[in-house]
Each structure stands twice: as structure tokens, then as C-alpha cells.
């Protein structure tokens, strides 16, 4: 499947924390740079995510903000 | 200002394309890895963004998806 | 690629309207039911979307609201 | 109330799963096609959602992505 | 229609700027406090928005961030 | 840090409800007007949010909808 989301960043699953319905998945996209995703527990199971396994962080361009110091 | 958004990734502005109301800002967060942000033209002006200047890509965790091959 | 987004709905591209930077893509997911997506012009080109062609509307669960009459 | 969100899809509540703060509501929009919404528990109560009752899935166009095989 | 979005803030339309496909609507929710919405041009027409007219800013709780100085 | 998000509304933290992974933070932005934010528990801790303390509700323009009666 090819998706319109402009940002697909390769990394490694660094942590998975399941909540009651919402899970937090941390993906290391470069040494020391973690991206945190809040997804459904159901998605974690469906994708068979495991710590240490490969994963992409996928983000729609309209959900990215820009900041400066 | 300190924000709740979990993902604040440092980079360099690689390109700015202004549309009629919406601009696309490309931030290089590591060599060869671009993050594209769709923001208002107004924000580009307000932040005085320039190509080559420093910028952060800021993303709320609930806007990040996870994918696997 | 398998994605965490819980909503992947099959349909047919009914219309594509490109703006200066943002395009509106209409996908018919059942007779008479259109889903409108606002994506980058770049994504329309990258996915080679054409009116009449197949496409999926993909939506993260945290972006879906519920309403009642 | 009339809202700017371009996508308002009628269906039937198929399931409600409340978490600690976040609930997942599944709406069947056509036979076999479920849309999953992640909303606050508070919203589930406020809308008096019940399994089997009517409901709309409401989605802003800028939150819809497009994918192709 | 009653919606799950937790934030429905009454105000007055202060400005409407239509782009090629995306419009910016500014709603004054209290004296001196503007909320800016980026919606489709189509929505502006469909809701018959006019400067000076009443309108609500509607925001899903999962799209609100928190910041401190 | 200066951010592209067009909506930064000052208020006071009225309530914090932590869930398993997701917290709901209520910010009073004017007397009687609450804005609810769903953020990570981690963000609540990181920002040291306390009831009665000052906080901003921050919202990207593309996440704001408009409604009329």
C-alpha cells in the first residue's frame, strides 16, 4: 500500500506501553531521537509490534508544526 | 514556551513553498530525511522561516501512526 | 506496508481538485457516499491518482468524531 | 448545528469500549464496513451512545489520507 | 446534531480568506482573542459564513495541546 | 520556542484527569469556558501541570472546525 502521508520515517521500536485502550509506541529514528506515537492497543496487536523490531513513523504533513527558538 | 507535543525534532529548513493560504515547509532532520509540514502562510511569515535556517518539526503523539513492511 | 490507522475504506476516485499546494480528492466509498480528503498536490502526483481509479480513504481512529441527531 | 467537517457518514453503533479516559466506538457504515473512532469517555456519556443505536462518523477532510495498492 | 468534540466555543466571524482550495476563517471568541480555522472553501460556502455573523470554533480534545511558559 | 500553531490561548488549569496512558487537561480560558485537551500522561508530568496553575491551549489551525446553528 502506498499512502499520501508525506512523512514515512524508518526506525526501530524502542518501547511499547499499552494503556486501557491507547498505546504509546516509541520509535527510534536515529541514535538518540525518539518519535512517540499514540495508537490503539488493537493496532499494536494487529501490526505485531515488538521492541527491537523495525517500524515506520507515519505522519500526515498537515499534522506537522514548525517551531523556532 | 514548553509544549505537551511529545515530538520536537531539530533540523534545517530545506524548502518553503507558499500556496494561496497553505505553505509547505520541508525540514531536513538528518541527512537525506525530510519532514514536510503543511502550515499557514501566516505562520511562515510570523516565524520568519528562511531556507537554510534552523527549525523544529513539532508533532503531537496522537498524530503519529506506525507502519510495518 | 501495513499501517496502524484503523480505518481503511476502499472506493473509487470521484474527483480531484488541485489547489496551489493542497488538493481535494473525493473518493466514493459506496453509491452516493463520498469521502473528501485534503492532501498535498505532491501526494496526488506521487500516488498517480486518476478519476475513476481505485483508492482507499485512510483515517486514524483518533481523528474520527461521533455525532447523533 | 451544521459543521464544516466534510465527512459525515451515517451508521449504527456496533461496539463501545471504554478505557480509563479514552473510548473506542465502532460504527458500521455499511454491511461489513466498520469505522473506529477514539473519543473521550465523557463524549460517549454525553451523547448517550448505545450499541445498536444510530450515529454518524464525522471526519475533517484534512484528516483523511489516500492510499493505493 | 450533537458531536463528540469536547470543545465548541461560540464567537463571531472576524475574517474569511479563501485560498485556491483552503480557506482561513477567523472567529473572535472573546474581545481580542481570535481562533483561526483552516477549512475547505466548500465548507465556507456550505455554511454560508459571513464576516460579522455568529459561528462556533469546534475542536476535538485530542487535537488540543497544552503549553506553559 | 515560537510555534507555527495559530491558536495559543491563555488560561488556568481547571482539572487534570490521568488515565492509563492518556490524560485529560481542562483549561479555563475565560470564566465558564473550558477547553479540554487529551495529552499523554508523560506530558502532564513533563510540564509539571497543576490545577490552578497557568497554561495555554495550543491548537493548529487545520484542527479547528467551524459550525453554525
From TrEMBL, chains A, B, C, D, E, F:
Keywords: Molybdenum. It comes from the Bacteria. Residues 2-68 form the Mop domain. InterPro entries: Mo/tungstate-bd_C_term_dom, Mop_domain, Transp-assoc_OB_typ1. PROSITE patterns: MOP. Pfam families: TOBE. NCBIfam families: Mop (TIGR00638). This is Transporter.
